[in-house]
Amino acid sequence: MPKSMCRFPSWCGRGLALLLLLLTSAGAAGSQQVRPRNVVFILTDDHRYDAMGFHPGAPEWLESPNLDRMARGGVHIANAFVTTALCSPSRASILTGQYTHRHGVVDNARDVPPGTRYFPQYLQQAGYRTAYVGKWHMGQDTDEPRPGFDHWVSFRGQGPYHNPVLNVDGRRVERAGYTTDILTEYALEWLERQRSGEPGRPFFLYLSHKAVHAEFAPAERHAGRYRNAKLTYPETMRRDAPGIDSWPEWVRQQRSSWHGVDYMYHGRISFDDFLRQYGETLLAADESVGKVLDLLERTGLDDNTLVIYMGDNGFSFGEHGLIDKRHAFEESIRVPMLAWGPGLVRPGTTLNQMVMNMDVMPTVLELAGARAPADHAVDGRSFLPLLRGESIPWRSEVFYEYYWEWNFPQTPTQFALRTDRYKYIHFYGLWGQDALFDLQADPGEARNLIAMPQHKQLALDLRGRLFRVMEETGGLQIPLREPRGQPNAARRPAGARSTDPLAEQ
């Protein structure tokens, strides 16, 4: 087995055991073959980890009945993280099983490097039928079908919330209606066709929604649902928040920018309307999940299908005076993640180990009895044994990276190492200090401990481990890209009205 894939002995041991099992089964006359499990992977955009109705951190008014249904009938992966909290890099990590510095998709304006391979290509080689429906986003100007998918439905760039122009297997199709609903229709039609396909042939569906990407636009049937919802604001949104003097200067300055509560989207929308519309836009995505589950149960496919739901990155709603993602604070790097699979996972359970988006690839491949070739370096690892309730050695920390963008210069390049208790953040190229948070004592990351003498050794240890991860995975080079697009660099003009609801208090 290649060295790059044997960094985790438990993974390699399972792979060898699976190979031996397959060889034994193939050679035994009359042996019973295990039917490969189907997989449906549903991805939403900008969905933060606690924005689900069942989650104790969710607003009281937020509804997500179908995500709640997934949690009741499956596993809530409570500590799911992304390698980079940005659409295209995160999606590339899902499809390649790699850190951003390895796959090279560092922002939303770039296409994947030539020769990049995606794990559905390996599923095809293992006999799976595959489909991609929804937002691709890697390469703003193209919607062309990509390798690994027998069926393709997508659009250019971010795509609109209404009346999308879709590329359906290489043919442009104009559709009228709400994009979330339209993508769901295509996904359901393809799933229906799988029943009449080759008997026993497994399938993989990747349903990738635009929702709930900012700027939010709910379906007409949901618009105004939360107009009277009573909002609460995070403690760190206040201008006099406890610990604010310890925050990096760029954080304090950003609240008056495109991604800050004082001047969000250059003052085009109020914070309260923004938050309410987020919840309303999520409703259609939640309905989409319910329709997929309904079809699987109605057709009997549920007994042999694993459904995985997750967000591509988190989102801030006022924490540290910020909106958006990109940064290494919890609400940005954590995502919702659920797994539903009758007969495979135990209903109503919670998985607390730290799982990453780049773990999706090896998990699905292991479930399919497939693997990446020796020359495809895989940074993630399969969490399938954890879904089954097995006790195995697992990671004790996650690595995070984000690279400064020309279009959104408010957020600097940063690298972070997060353990079960502490987080160390290194801000690259800034005149200022790094950050250290005790997540157990300070889950809101309000007090930066980096300057406290009693934490100096801890900070040094975490920084050393952070750079070792980058060194071991080839991440000690900053990927540079030629600027594209327009920078949203304007700051709130003097005297302009703030969009922050706490500004006048």
What can you tell me about this protein's structure?
The protein has twelve helices and 17 strands. It is of the alpha/beta class and 505 residues long. The protein has a domain of 331 residues: 3-Layer(aba) Sandwich (Alkaline Phosphatase, subunit A), CATH 3.40.720. The strands form three sheets. Strands 1, 2, 3, 4, 5, 6, 7, 8, 11, 12 and 13 form an eleven-stranded mixed sheet that branches. The longest helix is centred in the middle third of the chain and has 29 residues. The chain is globular.
List the defining traits of the structure above:
alpha/beta, Alkaline Phosphatase, subunit A, 11-stranded mixed beta sheet, 12 helices, 27% helix
The gyration radius over C-alpha positions equals 22 Å
Helix percentage range: 25-40%
Q: Under the CATH scheme, which architecture of the domain at 36-237 and 269-397 would be assigned?
A: 3-Layer(aba) Sandwich
Structural class: alpha/beta
Amino-to-carboxy terminus distance: 62 Å
The CATH class of the domain at 36-237 and 269-397 is Alpha Beta
Q: Please tally the β strands and state the result.
A: 17
Mean pLDDT: 92
CATH topology description of the domain at 36-237 and 269-397: Alkaline Phosphatase, subunit A
CATH superfamily name of the domain at 36-237 and 269-397?
Answer: Alkaline Phosphatase, subunit A
- Largest β sheet strand count, sense and barrel closure: 11 strands, mixed
Strand content: 15-25%
Give unreliable regions as ranges.
1-33
| DSSP summary: helix tally | 12
Shape designation: globular
Order of helices and strands: HEHEHHHEEEEHEHHEEEHEEEHHEEEEH
